[in-house]
Amino acid sequence: MFAMAFFFDPWTPLVFWVGVLVLQVFFSQIDWKKWLLFMLPFFVTAFGYFWTTLVFAEDQSGPVIWTIGDLQITETQLNHALSLSFRVLAFSSLSLLFALTTNPVTFILSLMQQLKLSPKIAYGVMVGYQFLPVLKDEFVQIGQAHRLRGAGGEKNALQRLLGVRRILIPMLAGAVRKAERAAFAMEARGFTGEQRSSYFQVISIGKVDVVLIALFLFVLVLSCTNGLWLS
Amino acid sequence: MHDVIQFEKVSFRYPDEEKWILENLSFSVQRGERVVITGPSGCGKTTLLYLSNRLYPDNCDGILSGSVKLFGRDSLSFIAGEINHRVATVFQDPDSQFCMQTVEEELAFTLENLHVKRDEMEKRICEVLELTDLTEFRHAIIQKLSGGQKQRIATACALIMEPEVLLLDEPLSHLDPYNAKKYVEWLDELQQKRAMTIVAIEHRLDLWGDFFERSISLNKNEVAPNLEKRRCSIKDDASLVVNKVQTKSFLQETTFVLNQGEIAVLAGPNGSGKSTLLKALCQLIPSNGAVQPKLLGYVPQSPEFLFLTKNVRDEVGFGGGNNVEDMMTRLQLLPIADSHPFAVSHGQKRRVAIAAMLTDGRQVILMDEPTSGQDAQALSELFQLIDERACEGTTFLIVTHDMEFAYCIADSILLMNDGLLTGKFEANEVWVDEQLLLDHHLLPPKGMMLREECFA
Amino acid sequence: MLKSWKLKEIVLMSLFAVVFGIVYLLFLHVGNIWAGFIGPIAYEWIFGIWFIVSIICMYIIRKPGAAVVSETIAAAIEVLLGNAVGPRLILSGLVQGLGAEAVFAATRYKRFDLWVLILAGVGSSVFSFVYGYFLGGFAVYSTGYVALMLGIRILSGALLAGVGGKAVADGLLATGSLRGYAISRSKKGEARA
Ligand SMILES: Nc1ncnc2c1ncn2[C@@H]1O[C@H](COP(=O)(O)OP(=O)(O)OP(=O)(O)O)[C@@H](O)[C@H]1O
Ligand SMILES: Nc1ncnc2c1ncn2[C@@H]1O[C@H](COP(=O)(O)OP(=O)(O)OP(=O)(O)O)[C@@H](O)[C@H]1O
Ligand SMILES: [Mg+2]
Ligand SMILES: [Mg+2]
User: Fold this and answer.
1) Beta-carbon count within 10 A of B86 CB
2) How many CA atoms lie within 13 A of A207 on its CB side?
3) B3-13 vs A71-74, strand pairing mode
4) Is the CB–ligand 1 distance for residue B312 below 6 Å?
5) Do the beta carbons of residue B46 and residue B97 sit within 8 Å?
6) What is the dihedral of CA B139, B144, B149, B150, to 10 degrees?
7) What angle do CA A159, A163, A165 make, to 5 degrees?
8) Which one of A26, A213, B123, C59 is most buried, by most CB atoms within 10 A?
9) Which domains does chain C have, with CATH numbers?
10) Nearest chain B CA: its distance from A96 CA (Å)
11) B94 Cα: distance to centroid of ligand 2 (angstroms)
12) Of A170, A180, A185, which is closest to B98 when you measure between CB atoms?
């Protein structure tokens, strides 16, 4: 019961969220407009959690502090609701901070160099990730090819939506072919998947990274273990 | 043991296909040899190359009988990628042989695989870039380079391994004549210095001079008639009007007109913007200016771009043409009519794209390097098809690096350099203007020189 | 385990992870906005979508680990792409993948028919629900509500991930581009038998 009260008190996640924001101000030059845009869906989610918890919560003990029509809202309920919402905000801000400050390729290279992740996986994932912009072009190109060949030309929105479905399979088929060729290219360059003895681009870890990683792990552990404490 | 590659009674077929691609093939290549593999398009040359670097049969579930030995050891006894430390490959398709983003990363990736020490990497990267004259591309993003540039980069990536065996699959097919000539020259020099074994696949041996010591022919090449210069079929009405077309970053303002029945060749150095211009004309990339008519036929440099259906026959007939069978017979596509367009040889893919566009009945057709990777037979058939169509009034704009083909087919020539259309010329004027040719990395065609010798 | 994996299978897996990472992210936003109106139960209806990559990859590659690894990578890509629930998403991916993997492991990676794929979808649903129960603080909801959530999630896992995953992979097989992967090999075997 004590643990529950501790974990569903709204202050811990709130303090945590503010902490993340402070970190963000100090350690990175983040474009706040962009940040707000990305955060918008999470604000909506947080709000969703807030009111559903108020309405559907099981634990209805504690003094009633609000009455809206038939609905009575107790202090415990309000605390739970606030706690869950702040938790959503805290976690999403943290991952956003991570996402906006980390270059994925450097991140994978670092996983391989520092944590000895298998190069087969690391390079496999990296090569796949680098196809991201190519896949976007591919989407456009399949449409263009249809147009060039005299197919398509759907007018209304519904037809266009069905058209998108017609694009998904060719796109995946294209992905399969690209994967195969990239793998052939890697193999032809002598890639065997064994650990490499030296790197051209050495990734070194700075102070900021250490702080971020430590924080990251802390949150990860926290978010995994609090469930256990609850039971 | 001096055999580096040894095939003994090798037969190979792809899964799901009944036909054996290679049958009972035996040959060997010795250390330091320069061998060329020839044979008509689709006879299995590329497949053979894939067997020689151990990508097949491991990666395609193909059925192999007989033995392939590399450096005296059975090829299957190597683990994936192991033999590729000693055998470097330049693949046929410039678009699909890279795995990293920039040229430097690609080169470094190769060196890391070979366990080269870090302080040595920088030196080797600089060296190979200088050797291949590609230093300016060091930080370029590979996907944004032109076809010919990619092909040169691919060679640099192979050479940086300092391999014992170099496998080349039609390495000149997208290079402009000047670069092709230089390529052969420095490959020659390098082979003497490093005593590499070179095995190349090639249709057009004339570009290589006497580079090769020996040739292995996979299939009897049918004798194809020599191309003859065609008669001009220009009519008076304009059919392609290009007015001030321009892209934001590279292509400068372009204006020209082609008439009905006119065949124009667009030529220029690698990376001069030929493909970019064609794409802009088809509105595949954003551009300003006006093009008449709106709907153009287009055969892209990478033919796969066009493919939408599940077999070659549907692909050719997609536009609803009525002479599909006839077209497929002439371009030798009947044997693969039921294959998937993505699972045929490179030359075949290109012919599928060409056939599809020719049956579509468009009035103006743009072709981006339709000649690359075609054998003599296919080239001659292509020539005749274009000729017939032009006589019926279709207008063609053809990008090619093949000077003989250009000489025989062109009514007029558009030259490009550095994103700028230098101008539209009468074909005959261009071949005699040495400075103009030199500026655009072109060489006078052989047919032309022979004729001049006769006159002299 | 890595030894038996071909490079092209790994790259395929990660490319699919990228494609579906994008799809997942789109659905996350759809779910987020929807959830803002009808509450967390909105996610349950579409939850199956988030298991689909593990089922597609396993169905195509058929090697131990294909489900867990692909799902984890997809989750990681989703995080790397810029805006996800949180770093713990990687962990949820792992758990979801394990759910599907457990079902495939139970058949010793021998059966890949529709029922097994549906079960795999259900496996992911159950694993992810148990995990979510502790993590998401479902404990505060009434039991009936929680049971409803579980029921919808299982249905969604079975249909969207199991049936949907099979449909996508079969569509892909028909394009002929999956030559050289286990799925084509088995089709040939069935045809011969
Ligand atoms: N992935 C594949 N699956 C099935 N069949 C294939 C595949 N690739 C090629 N083929 C078929 O195998 C034959 C040989 O193809 P290959 O690519 O080796 O020809 P090639 O001699 O290199 O031709 P080109 O000069 O046109 O490049 C062709 O008939 C082709 O249709
Ligand atoms: N997708 C792209 N994005 C950005 N730049 C590109 C792209 N494709 C080509 N370029 C650049 O535009 C220039 C012209 O390329 P283009 O492909 O038109 O050359 P090209 O004349 O067709 O050469 P080639 O004979 O080698 O095919 C090159 O400098 C190239 O680097
Ligand atoms: Mg070939
Ligand atoms: Mg080009």
Assistant:
1) 18
2) 3
3) unpaired
4) no
5) no
6) 90
7) 125
8) C59
9) 2-185 (1.10.1760)
10) 25
11) 12
12) A185
CA angle B299, B305, B307 (to 5 degrees): 90
Q: How far apart are alpha carbons B391 and B388 in whole angstroms?
A: 5
- The structure tokens 């202050």 sit at A11
- In whole angstroms, how far apart are CA B154 and each of A67, B179, B195? 73, 14, 20
List CB-based neighbours of ion ligand 3 within 5 Å.
B 46, 92, 345-346
Per residue in B6-25, pLDDT (tens digit) is: 999 999 999 878 889 999 99
Please compute, for residue A145, the number of CA atoms within 13 A of its CA located in the half-sphere on the CB side. 24
At residue A228, does pLDDT exceed 50?
no
CB atoms within 10 A of CB C184: 18
Amino acid B411: pLDDT: 93
Mean pLDDT of A123-142: 84
* Structure-block tokens of residue C8: 């092209």
Nearest to B81 among A134, A145, A191 (CB): A191
Q: Token pair of B440, please? A: 């655009």
Alpha-carbon distance of B26 to C55, in angstroms, equals: 44
The binding-site residues of ligand 2, defined as CB within 6 angstroms of any ligand atom, are: B 144-149, 174, 250, 268, 270-276, 301
CB contact residues (below 8 A), chain C span 45-84, against chain A: 69, 73, 76-77, 79-84
How large is the average pLDDT for residues A122-142? 84
Determine the Cα–Cα distance for residues A36 and A18; give it in Å rounded to an integer: 15
Query: Rounded distance, CA C112 to CA B46, Å?
Result: 35
In 3D, which of B278, A54, B15 has the Cα closest to residue C191?
Answer: B15
B339 CB less than 6 Å from ligand 1? yes
Contact C188 B16 (CB under 8 A): yes
Question: Any idea which residue has 């706040």 for tokens?
Answer: A32
| Nearest to B142, CA basis, from B101, B175, B192, B177 | B101
Give Cα A39 distance to the centre of its chain.
12
Query: E strands of B225-352, at which residues?
Result: 238-246, 254-259, 263-267, 288-292, 297-299
Strand ranges (DSSP E) for B125-196? 165-169
With tokens 């955060």, the residue in question is A39
Whether a cis peptide bond, with omega within 30° of 0, leads into B57 is: yes
- The amino acid that residue C50 corresponds to is W
Encode pLDDT of B374-403 as tens digits: 988 899 999 999 999 999 999 999 999 999
Say what percent of chain A tops pLDDT 70. 78
Q: Which residue of A has its CA nearest to C175?
A: A173
Q: What is the pLDDT of residues A133-142, one digit of tens each?
A: 888 788 788 8
How large a percentage of chain C has pLDDT more than 90? 47
Q: Locate tokens 């070179």: which residue?
A: B198
Please state which of the ranges A22-26, A44-48, B117-121 shows the lowest mean pLDDT: A22-26
- What 3-state class would DSSP assign to B156? helix
**Are residues A184 and B109, on separate chains, in Cβ contact within 8 Å?**
no
Q: What is the mean pLDDT of residues A79-95?
A: 79
Closest CA to B68 of B42, B48, B82, B41: B48
Q: Which of B337, B38, B83 is nearest to B203 (CA)?
A: B38
Interior CA angle at B114 toward B110 and B116, to 5°?
100
- pLDDT tens-place string over residues B225-275: 778 888 888 888 999 999 999 999 899 999 999 999 999 999 999 999 999
